[in-house]
Amino acid sequence: MNYKPTHIATIIVVLFVSLTRGQVLNKSWKDIIYKSERAWFSTTEAKEIAENVLLYQRNIGGWPKNIQMQQKLSEDEKDALSALKSSTKEVTTDNGATIQEMEFLSKIYENVPDNRYKEAFLKGINYLLEAQYENGGWPQFYPLKKGYYTHITYNDDSMVNILSLLKEIKDRSDYYSIKPNEEIVSKAQTAFNKGIDCILKTQYKQNGVLTSWCAQHDEKTLLPAKGRAYELPSLSGHESANIVLLLMAVENPSPEIIKAVHAAVAWFEKVQINNLREERIYNDEGKVIDKKLIHDEKAKPLWARFMELENNKPFFCDRDGIKKYSLAEIGPERRNGYAWYITTPEKVLKKYPKWKEKYGITATKIPSEDKYYMVVAQDGSGDYTNIQEAINNAKAFPYEKITIFIKKGVYNEKIKIHEWNTNIHLIGESKEKTIIRYDDAFNKVSLGRNSTFYTYTLLVEANDTVLQNLTIENAAGEVGQAVALSVFSNRVVVENCNILGNQDTLYASGIGKQYYKNCYIEGTTDFIFGSATAYFENCIIHSKKDSYITAASTPKDANFGYVFKNCHLTASDTTTQVYLGRPWRIYAKTVFIQCTLDQHILPEGWHNWSKPEAEKTTFFAEFENKGAGAISSKRVAWSHQLTKKEIKRYRLQNILGSNESQSNWYETK
Question: Are residues 307 and 180 in the same domain?
Answer without folding.
Answer: no
